[in-house]
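Raw record, unedited: Intradiol ring-cleavage dioxygenases domain-containing protein
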Amino acid sequence: MPVILFVLVSFILSIHQQVRSQSSTCTLTEPDILGPYWLDGAPKKTDDLCDNLPTFDVLILTGRIVDFDSKCKRGIKNVNLDVWQANYNGVYSSGRSSNDWFCRGVLHSDDNGYFKIFTLFPGRYDDGGYRPAHIHFNITASGYPQLITQLYFEKDVYLAPFDSCEQCHSDSESLITSVRHVHDIKTFEGNWQIVLSKKFHPRIVTKTSLSRGSYIDVKQHTMPNHDRTSSREHNTMKFRQG
């Protein structure tokens, strides 16, 4: 191959690779179902989502909320992040008292769109089949459509098609992040980019927007005193190898 042609081909391949890389990192964050456990009135928090964190399976989640129409270069400031999740045993708080809001809170992004959440690695729960570990987000930003979604974790053995929630999107690449141990084996660290667009209006799935008999209507079981010890083995870190 002539040198000039080789250089031209290499340049084209390089540009193509850059375009692919940009498109793969700047993808709209997909919506996901609300689920039965969202509660209005969650307390405002800085970065600690769960009170009295254990000394094991702590999760430090950092990320940035960016604008899709700026090719994900511009962060979105002061975004409301209403976040809720199950505790290690797969139980959600009920909000029935001022002391029963564990692992729930409203946080905000900074002026450049960055956020940081200290929490615990969410437990799985049995709904006739296990859901993968996940964290719920209700995201609102001035001038942007509301986004309700869920965050999942790479290599979880219960990601779709093994997710007990058929309507959930646990196979969406935009909703899956990887975690790793950085400073010690008791702490997981991960990063997640949330991409919003003023032009894109995601479908918001609520408790009443699915037909009766669906996952949302049937699985109403916020039971803070429910004994899930029999399923504890499923809440150890089970991930696919490789």
